[in-house]
Amino acid sequence: MPELPEVENVRRSLQAAGVEGSKVERVELLRANLRTPFDQRLIAKTHGQRIERVWRRAKFLLFELSKDAWISHLGMTGSWRVEPKRTGVGFAALKHDHIRVHLSSGMVLVYHDPRRFGVFEAHPGKDLVHSKWLRGLGQEPLESWDGESLHASLRHRESVIKSAIMDQKVVVGVGNIYASEALFMAGIRPTRKANRVSREECGRLAQAIRKVLDKAIASGGSTIRDYRQADGQKGEFQEQLLVYGRAGLSCRQCAQPVKQKVIGGRSSFWCATCQR
DNA sequence: CGGTAGACCTGACCGC
DNA sequence: TGCGGTCAGGTCTACC
């Protein structure tokens, strides 16, 4: 489900719900694992700590606590939802709710994930740079990153450009939807070899990546099926998609039918006229 | 090292 | 109504 814009909107909606500054009473685990087994002892050690800051690195949500930290990844279908303080009977757990974080304010943060490709891990100490999940990640596209930097990473790449920009070592946050979108915006075919994308084209592509991610963040992300912000709101960027999911429909730029094919195992969309 | 197929998991949808 | 096949926003691993 979630690429950078979706994760960023979850982060903002958690922030808006007042999660930062609240105290963790208890993390209730409704099963033993997601993609990886929970370390119950490490998680229990975070009871009583305050959530100081919720931030994001790549597609990871990071909860910085008083002493330790939690790392959360939403995989394909993960979501966090905020259940407000409730007097009397609480909320019933839904199918696929796996984690309930009880805050002392009475608020409950619920992690829901049907396919369980997500990750939830407590990390001892606040210094997350050594976490195995974050090690080796490339640069944040919305910070100091540009076409030069992209060009340098792609120069010796033999893979196709679409796979390359989805590689989190090259640049983080771009997934299957925004890869197709950015390549369309830059006029580059997804099947082109990465090392055949010129410096100028890398400039346009880096710009396109930044632009599409920015716009998607501003629209609350793309809700294709599961994705929700923590307050339950859907995103709206799916209305503005140029090629993703539009196979056979006419290109918004030239009216030719949009093409679709599996590239690197993922469904990919492009316009053969507008993209070279 | 780089590249790619397969694995992980559930649910929705389509054709028979 | 049921069954089998396909597909889905991500990443790890095994293998060449």
Largest sheet: spatial strand order: 1-6-7-5
| Distance between the amino and carboxyl termini | 28 Å
N-to-C SSE string, H for helix and E for strand? HEHEEEEEEEHHHHEE
Radius of gyration: 20 Å
Q: How would you characterize the largest beta sheet? A: 4 strands, antiparallel
- Amount of beta strand: 15-25%
Coarse shape: globular
Helix content: 10-25%
Q: How many individual helices?
A: 6
**Class from secondary-structure proportions:** alpha+beta
Q: Would you identify the regions where 5 or more consecutive residues have pLDDT less than 50? A: none
Using DSSP, what is the number of strands?
10
Give the overall pLDDT as a whole number.
Answer: 96
Question: What does it look like?
Answer:
The protein is an alpha+beta fold and about 280 residues long. It has helices at about 5-15, 40-45, 145-155, 160-165, 175-185, 200-220; strands spanning about 25-30, 50-55, 60-65, 70-75, 80-85, 95-105, 110, 120-125, 260-265, 265-270. A hairpin with a 3-residue loop joins strand 3 and strand 4 (about 70-75). The longest helix has 20 residues, at about 200-220. It is globular. The model has no long low-confidence stretch (mean pLDDT about 95). The protein binds a DNA duplex (16 and 16 nucleotides) through helix 5.
What order do the helices and strands come in, and which of them pair?
Blueprint lengths: L3 H13 L7 E6 L10 H5 L6 E7 L2 E6 L3 E5 L5 E5 L13 E7 L4 E5 L6 E5 L23 H8 L6 H6 L9 H11 L12 H20 L40 E5 L2 E5 L6
Antiparallel strand pairs: 1-6, 2-3, 3-4, 4-8, 5-7, 6-7, 9-10
Helix pairs in contact: 1-6, 3-6, 5-6
The structure holds a DNA duplex (16 and 16 nucleotides).
